[in-house]
C-alpha cells in the first residue's frame, strides 16, 4: 500500500519527452468516446488546444461578490470574449441568454458558505447529470478539498460525477480548492492535481505556483489556472503568461477579469495570451489600448 511517509521523492518529470500522441489534440483524452471528445473540443480550442474560461460561480459560497452583483449586467456582455462560461445552474439559467454559443461548465458541487470556517465540510454534489444534460453542459466542475476535513466527501463527489460523465460523455473539471489550513506549495498542487486526474477528472483547475511546470508535466490531462484574488492587471497577465509558458492549457479566471476596471479589455488581453501567444508585456499594452479606446 502506498505510504504518505517515506515515499521516494518524485523528481524526473521528463520535460524533454512530449506527452504521447493519442490522435486527439487534448492531452490524455484520446481514448475517450466521441461525445466526450466533442464536448472537450468545445471547452478547449482544437486550433490552439487552449481555453479562456470565465468563472463567475463565486456567489455559490460568497453571495453577491463585487463585480457579480448583477450577472445580467456585468457577465452577460463579457461572454463573447471567453470560450467557456463557468457558473452555477442558477446563475446561468437566470442571467445568461440561452442563445449563447459558448460552452457551459456547470459548477456542480455545493460547499459550506463563507460563514463557516471550513468550507470543505459542506461539500457534495449540487445537481445531477440529468439537469446538466438539460442545460446542454459541456462539463461539470467538481470542487475537491485534498487534505481538508471534507476530502473524503469531495473526492466521492468527483468519482460519482466522473462515473456519470463517462456514461453520458460529459467531462468533469476537477477543481483543487485549497483550504485555509493548506499551504499553496508546489508539493501540495503536485499531489492534489494528480489525485483529481487519477480519479477521473478530464481536466484539472488549479492555482499557479512555484515550479508550475512540474505540476503541469505530471498532470496527465489538460490543466488550467484560476486567477485568485484581484491583482493589478499587469500582474494577472504576467501570471497567465507564465502559466501558459509552463504548460497550462488555459485559465479559468474570475475576479481578475470581472473586477478589473475594464473587464472586456482584460478578458480580451487574457485571451491574447492564451490563444495568440502574446507575452505579458504585449498583453498589458493590448489591455491599455482596448481600455483607452
Ligand atoms: C471559486 O469560488 C471558484 O472556483 C472560482 O471559479 C475560481 O476560484 C476562479 O475564480 P477566480 O479567478 O476569481 O479565483
User: How many strands appear in the DSSP assignment?
Assistant: 10
Outline the biggest β-sheet.
8 strands, parallel, barrel
Query: Counting H and I runs of at least 4 residues, what is the number of helices?
Result: 12
Mean pLDDT: 95
Give Rg in angstroms. Answer: 18 Å
Give the ligands present.
ribose-5-phosphate
Summarize, please.
This protein is α/β, with parallel strands linked by helices and 293 residues long.
Per-chain topology:
Elements lengths: L33 H10 L7 E5 L3 H4 L8 H4 L9 E4 L1 H7 L7 E5 L1 E2 L13 E2 L3 H6 L4 E6 L6 H18 L3 E5 L9 H13 L4 E4 L5 H6 L5 E4 L6 H13 L4 E4 L1 H4 L4 H14 L3 H12 L2
Parallel strand pairs: 1-2, 1-10, 2-3, 3-6, 6-7, 7-8, 8-9, 9-10
Antiparallel strand pairs: 4-5
Helix pairs in contact: 9-11, 9-12, 11-12
Description:
This protein is α/β, with parallel strands linked by helices. The protein is built from 12 helices and 10 strands. It has helices at residues 34-43, 59-62, 71-74, 89-95, 129-134, 151-168, 186-198, 212-217, 233-245, 255-258, 263-276, 280-291; strands at 51-55, 84-87, 103-107, 109-110, 124-125, 139-144, 172-176, 203-206, 223-226, 250-253. The strands form 2 sheets. An 8-stranded parallel β-barrel has the order 1-2-3-6-7-8-9-10, surrounded by 6 helices. A two-stranded antiparallel sheet has the order 4-5. Strand 6 (139-144), helix 6 and strand 7 (172-176) form a beta-alpha-beta unit. Helix 9 runs parallel beside helix 11 (263-276). The protein is globular and about 55 Å long. Ribose-5-phosphate (R5P) binds next to strand 10 and helix 10. Ribose-5-phosphate is lined by residues 55, 57-58, 61, 86, 175, 226-228, 252-256.
Amino acid at each position: 500500500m502506498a505510504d504518505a511517509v517515506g515515499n521516494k521523492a518524485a523528481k524526473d518529470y521528463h520535460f524533454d519527452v512530449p506527452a504521447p500522441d493519442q490522435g486527439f489534440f487534448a492531452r490524455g483524452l484520446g481514448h475517450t468516446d466521441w461525445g466526450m471528445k466533442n464536448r472537450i473540443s468545445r471547452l478547449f480550442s482544437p486550433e490552439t488546444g487552449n481555453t479562456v474560461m470565465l468563472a463567475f460561480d463565486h456567489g455559490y459560497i460568497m453571495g453577491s461578490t463585487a463585480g457579480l452583483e448583477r450577472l445580467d449586467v456585468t457577465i452577460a456582455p463579457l461572454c463573447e470574449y471567453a470560450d467557456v462560461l463557468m457558473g452555477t445552474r442558477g446563475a446561468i439559467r437566470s442571467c445568461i441568454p440561452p442563445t449563447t454559443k459558448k460552452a457551459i461548465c456547470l459548477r456542480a458541487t455545493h460547499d459550506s458558505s463563507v460563514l463557516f470556517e471550513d468550507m470543505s465540510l459542506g461539500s457534495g454534489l449540487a445537481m445531477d447529470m440529468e439537469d446538466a444534460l438539460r442545460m446542454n453542459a459541456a462539463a461539470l466542475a467538481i470542487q475537491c478539498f485534498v487534505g481538508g476535513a471534507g476530502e473524503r466527501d469531495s473526492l466521492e463527489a468527483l468519482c460519482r460525477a466522473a462515473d456519470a460523465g463517462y456514461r453520458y460523455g460529459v467531462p468533469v473539471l476537477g477543481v483543487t480548492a485549497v483550504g485555509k489550513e493548506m499551504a499553496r506549495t508546489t508539493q501540495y498542487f503536485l499531489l492534489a492535481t494528480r489525485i483529481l486526474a487519477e480519479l477521473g477528472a478530464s481536466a484539472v483547475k488549479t492555482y499557479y505556483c512555484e515550479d508550475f511546470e512540474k505540476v503541469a508535466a505530471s498532470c496527465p490531462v489538460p490543466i488550467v489556472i484560476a486567477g485568485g484574488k484581484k491583482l493589478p492587471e499587469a500582474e494577472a497577465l504576467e501570471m497567465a503568461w507564465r502559466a501558459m509558458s509552463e504548460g497550462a492549457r488555459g485559465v479559468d479566471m474570475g475576479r481578475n477579469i470581472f473586477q478589473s476596471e475594464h473587464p472586456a479589455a482584460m478578458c480580451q488581453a487574457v485571451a491574447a495570451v492564451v490563444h495568440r501567444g502574446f507575452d505579458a508585456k504585449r498583453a498589458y499594452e493590448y489591455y491599455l489600448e482596448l481600455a483607452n479606446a
